[in-house]
Amino acid sequence: MKPLHHLSAVALRDAFLQGEVSAVQIVEAFLERIEHHNGKLGAFLTILGPRAWMKAEALDKKRSHNQPLGKMAAIPVAIKDNMHIAGEITTCGSQFLSNYKAPFYATAVHRMEQEDAILIGKTNMDEFAMGSSNENSAFFPAHNPWNLNCVPGGSSGGSAAAVAARLALIATGSDTGGSIRQPAGFCGVVGYKPTYGRVSRYGLVAFGSSLDQIGPLGTTVADTALAMEVMGHHCPHDATSLDLPPETYPLSKKLQEGTVIGIPWQFLKGLNPEVRENFQQALEVMKSLGAHLVEVNLDILKYSIAVYYILATAEASTNLARFDGIRYGIRSKAGKTLEEIYDQSRKEGFGREVKKRIMLGTYVLSAGYQDAYYKKAQKVRTLILHAFDQAFGQCDAVMMPIATSGAFEHGSIQDPLEMYLQDIFTVPANLAGLPAISIPSGYDRRGMPLGVQIIGPQLCDVAVMQYAHAYEQASSHTRIPGNYAS
Ligand code: GLN
User: Fold this and answer.
1) Total structural domains in the chain?
2) Residues of 432-449 as b/e, b for ≥16 C-beta within 10 angstroms?
3) What pLDDT score was predicted for residue 321?
4) What are the tens digits of pLDDT across the range 309-366?
5) How much distance in Å is there from the Cα of 317 to the middle of ligand 1?
6) DSSP E strands, 157-285
7) Is 390 inside any structural domain?
8) Which residues have CB under 8 Å from 376's CB, separation 6+?
9) What is the reported pTM?
10) Which range marks the domain in which residue 461 is found?
11) What is the CATH number of the domain that holds 83?
């Protein structure tokens, strides 16, 4: 058998089910990898060693007694540190929550554990999921396994780095404006953002509630599909959870006959030549699979960054009002009065980026400015939805690159606007609630991974997975970064 970390999650589960490997051996192998690599990679904030051992022993026992095993049996899964696991710390990448022990489970995480996944650790992230590089983590930055000088992307950078380096075979991420898909693209793995409401947000620390979605990162489309099958269930604790039956994801190497892919060429003008060439190669693959390509008009997406950074900050400013040092997290010792405790705790607990966003969000919601900013942004959001509706009248899915370049070097982007522009290709799917997937599409001249994105109409999660799987099977760009293969 290949080394365990060379297997896909599905293959590893099957090897466990067939008795070729024990769950204890799996945990041993992956914990050893984490121990060996995490110091340099910074992918994990917490390693759930005792929990993983216990689960592994229970699984081996279950198997030896021929008891039924779950869909994710013995797959080592990493959880982004903004999702709760009862009894474990959820830091959300912030000093504020560095002592916060979760009293309950995030539904999506719980469902995976109930299907016998082994939760192996909590992954590094930008504080409160605000960022595109993981450099906003309050603890330490995560690094890109393809080149440690480069960022892994953000905010789910720890999850992407963990999966790319095969320290876990599946990880969860949360995607408010691209935080699953962009790091997946930067690290050469698959990242999936479901239709808004498909996966419960219960137990996810809220950032921008009308945008946030939990989704999986994996080394293959089939692995992310498996995770979606498990996570994508209705949940009564989340009022925005879709009350629909869970889906299965039958995947095939072929595209359905007559599949039409829309490309918003006008919106993509000015693409860096290397990214354009890579994207064009991906389109050729789709054509060779029988897809018909058409141009669609999504020019309005040029406003999506402006709209996103108004709406996401507005929602964040209200969501983060609950962090006051009384109910959650760290309480400042400097304050004497209640007011001072609130102020000081927030001053000490939050990092720069979070404070900046709270201020921006408070500003766009303020009495004097909400018509000019917040309400206007809501209107443009509706126009973006309409533009997608129109585009999907002409095509089954839209394709575009996942980012304007491959992963950049740590510290190389200092200008906040330039950083925010990183999200230009990812935020549209959040604004319109659409399912979208990032798939490896090759490498740039430096050898850093590039990715393409497939976006489908709302509720067409299964179709998006199917297109992505067909593309992946026909192109196969997924590799293990050199230093992590052995
Ligand atoms: N990079 C975006 C931001 O900083 C997206 C973050 C996310 O999806 N959580 O807001």
Assistant:
1) 1
2) bbbbbbbbbbbbbeeebb
3) 95
4) 999 999 999 999 999 999 888 999 998 999 999 999 999 999 999 999 999 999 999 9
5) 14
6) 170-175, 190-193, 213-218, 260-263
7) no
8) none
9) 0.98
10) 4-258+395-484
11) 3.90.1300.10
* From 132, 186, 408, mutation site for ligand 1 pocket: most ligand atoms within 8 A of C-beta: 132
Whether a cis peptide bond, with omega within 30° of 0, leads into 155 is yes
Using alpha carbons, list the distances in angstroms from residue 168 to 40, 214, 218, 281, 486.
Answer: 16, 17, 9, 30, 15
Render pLDDT for 165-215 as a digit per residue (tens, 0 to 9).
999 999 999 999 999 999 999 999 999 999 999 999 999 999 999 999 999
- Taking the C-alpha atoms of residue 34 and residue 36, their distance in angstroms, rounded to an integer, is 5
Contact 145, 484 (CB under 8 A): yes
Question: What is the per-residue pLDDT for 1?
Answer: 84
Report the pLDDT value the prediction gives residue 79, as an integer from 0 to 100.
Answer: 98
Neighbours of 236 (CB within 10 A): 10
Do the Cβ atoms of 138 and 93 come closer than 8 Å? yes
What is the 3-class SS of 459-480, one letter each residue?
CCHHHHHHHHHHHHHHHCCCCC
178 lines ligand 1 (CB under 6 A): yes
Q: Is the beta carbon of 135 within 6 A of some atom in ligand 1? A: no
Q: Are 323 and 350 in contact (CB under 8 A)?
A: yes
pLDDT band at 412 (very low <50, low <70, confident <90, very high): very high
For residues 420 and 92, give the distance between their C-alpha atoms in angstroms, rounded to a whole number: 20
19 lies in some domain = yes
